[in-house]
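Regression test attached.
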Amino acid sequence: MLNFEYDNKTKIIFGKGTENEVGNYTKLYGKKVLLHYGRNSIKKYGLYDKVVASLKANNIDYVELGGVQANPRLKLAKAGIELTKKENVDFILAVGGGSVIDSAKAIALGHYYDGDVWDFYLKGIRPEKVLPVGVVLTIPAAGSESSTATVISDEETGLKRGYGDVSLRPKFAILNPELTYTLPNYQTSCGVVDIIGHVIERYMTNTTDVELTDRLCESVITTVINNAPKALNDNTDYASRAEIMWAGALAHNGLVGTGREEDWASHGMEHQLSAVYDIAHGAGLAIMYPAWMKFVYKHDLNRFALFANKIFGLEINNSNLEETALKGIAKLEEFYKSIDMPIRMSDINITDENINIMAEKATHTSDIIGSFVKLNKQDIINIYKLAL
Amino acid sequence: MLNFEYDNKTKIIFGKGTENEVGNYTKLYGKKVLLHYGRNSIKKYGLYDKVVASLKANNIDYVELGGVQANPRLKLAKAGIELTKKENVDFILAVGGGSVIDSAKAIALGHYYDGDVWDFYLKGIRPEKVLPVGVVLTIPAAGSESSTATVISDEETGLKRGYGDVSLRPKFAILNPELTYTLPNYQTSCGVVDIIGHVIERYMTNTTDVELTDRLCESVITTVINNAPKALNDNTDYASRAEIMWAGALAHNGLVGTGREEDWASHGMEHQLSAVYDIAHGAGLAIMYPAWMKFVYKHDLNRFALFANKIFGLEINNSNLEETALKGIAKLEEFYKSIDMPIRMSDINITDENINIMAEKATHTSDIIGSFVKLNKQDIINIYKLAL
């Protein structure tokens, strides 16, 4: 186990009807709120009205900025920064999924910064001060509701970049599984893949003596795998949607990675895939993990056999660990397929034409990505080819 | 799953050598510290010198109060409150195990309170303001390093009472597994029982649809059971001691109880046992859990069968769940015995003479304790008898 520091100051408010309390929590931090959201769904299903009613009931003034799309754009975040500066906003309330929250975090970063907010993402500089952010979550997936992370895409350059700072953890996150009832199954599945991905990035580690966090990782993944079919089969099944929603927060709040070296190469490669093709992050991850796993599994057959055993209940063949490892990867592919996710680029009609460009972009800030196995540009090209 | 709120603002600093950084964290909160500790061990093994050196290096002034004993006493806490008021202390640094931290929390409660600090424990009133507390942990057991709880004993009345408030979560907790190398095996075992107990109190619940937290509970318990023999066999085995130490914090930081009704009857009964006989809390719990389980298991055979299966790998006999449940309880007893814990009062020469008094005290603030099965005074007497 490695030395680590861990704290997570995001207050989770979890359960039925909790979105109606948003004003009570917001007023602890701000008086003039930027209400940030995506497109039509929060208005269509009544969430917008509930949030606004709760803000008004608490005498909180607000301005709005909707229009966040999947793979949230730098351009909109910059418009948000202009707005928060002009309107003297002191709190950002993100109502939506990971894209909305990530966009809110970008605005939070830019509000007190004189330069270009993109500097944070490209140069990794630290913010002196950020606007506080609160969340009403509608899509369990990104874990951004209690994470330090934000991922933004710049349409002009085609770059998609992640950034993280502890100051970006939301002050509170309201998680009501009922708010996910209206999600299309495709989005639920993408979320499930993303949640599992956040744990795989931590599970596949070179750090030894990490038994407790191994078990925690397995707990999150198996719970999500077990509940996904139920949630997809019945959109109003509170129990399964609650399990997935809480799992989504724990997968990426830092806990299951404590004391471990993490990887994140697959996320890096997926970011370029979704930057070029504007596909959903989860769908891209369902394509990238099997390919990445096939490229790296020989690096630690024991760990891949453990994954096969603990996640899918496969018996470990000690005289042929490779067999167990490969069966585990096949089971993961099978699970992704069972929830209607693509597992090859060809499943969504992507060919090899942009592989070199994506590999180039994936190594834009560092020649080497990943840590379980360190990958150079040629390795990344080979992994993209395995994903065809 | 029940609606819940969860946050834990304690910063965990985990790993080798971290105690040398205590001054860096302390200075974020205070300039005049009460250094609170137990008896001789922190001086004997050099920890005291390291802590003082780090405080001095950060220009932090301090006064001292040592002498905290197991089952920390109200009298010493009151002396501490007098001292913090007189010396204008603005931060309490607890260096020790759960008793020292609980005593520090009592002092934190009393510092800004005009009345008797015992009011909090007896009447459950809320504090307006408390002194901030920091921790250097030496015994993984109580989980007090990141919990809201404090348990104090009043020698005059023989009452032992717990209290909890979110304001009592320590600001930071330094967890270096190396600091546990000098613990006698008996104390390590007591800690192991305590850690497992904190999870059992949450695992045995009437709340349904709590799959993820079930898995998290099992992760903590199985990790501790798996690592305890290694830690006891080699006091300087960093890996196993690290697993137990991190498990000890997670067992009682609130996470594994999210969305669940919790029980706490066994803790309540044990508190009276250790109040009357001044035995170690962990030893008392190793006696109380098997007795409590034998009294309540029929209330939910499925849950006890799950416990047997997930914790001890026993196959569930679906045509005779009771058999599986009882085997699981027997396995828990076997584990306690294997780490040299008593499992009956008779193992430590306690007879039935004070059973009525203990049952009386256990129902001092409420006629009914527990929630998995609600227990009245006669039930409690019967459980104590099962523990003889």
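Expected vs. actual: identical. The mean pLDDT of chain B is 97.
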